[in-house]
TrEMBL record:
It comes from the Bacteria. The chain crosses the membrane at residues 38-55, 67-97, 104-126. This is Uncharacterized protein. Keywords: Membrane, Transmembrane, Transmembrane helix.
Length: 132
């Protein structure tokens, strides 16, 4: 019984705890916002692809004369790509859930589905880069 009460307890995503650049006002949510998020996922995927190319040892000779420098550079680029994707995911979560009181189960389901959808878009972009 306690678990059921806990699952249906209402909560909200408090945007005030986050930096201003990640917050979403209800008036900002338009079709352009959706396509901007898709574009940002594509940019993060392109960065990940660049990191993967450097890791594979493609001929990108900038400062790779140091031992294992291409591994560190590629991992840093892939990590940056993941951070950008995560920030985009958080901003999309703020847009969908907003500041309304919602059951914790609803918030969890929406965040899971959003992460799955954005993960599919992210890895589809990466797959398209490798195929192209």
């Amino acid at each position: 019984m306690y678990i059921v009460k806990l699952l249906f307890k209402t909560a909200t995503l408090d945007q005030e705890k986050f930096p201003k650049f990640i917050r979403v006002n209800p008036g900002d949510i338009t079709l352009k916002f959706v396509f901007d998020n898709i574009r940002n996922v594509g940019i993060a995927a392109a960065l990940f692809y660049c990191g993967a190319l450097i890791f594979r040892g493609e001929p990108l000779r900038v400062f790779f004369d140091l031992a294992y420098s291409q591994v560190f550079v590629s991992l840093a680029i892939c990590l940056l790509s993941f951070v950008l994707w995560s920030l985009n995911l958080l901003q999309a979560a703020f847009a969908i859930i907003g500041q309304k009181e919602r059951p914790i189960v609803f918030i969890g389901i929406v965040l899971f589905l959003l992460q799955a959808a954005m993960g599919i878009v992210f890895f589809t972009h990466i797959d398209a880069f490798f195929d192209g």
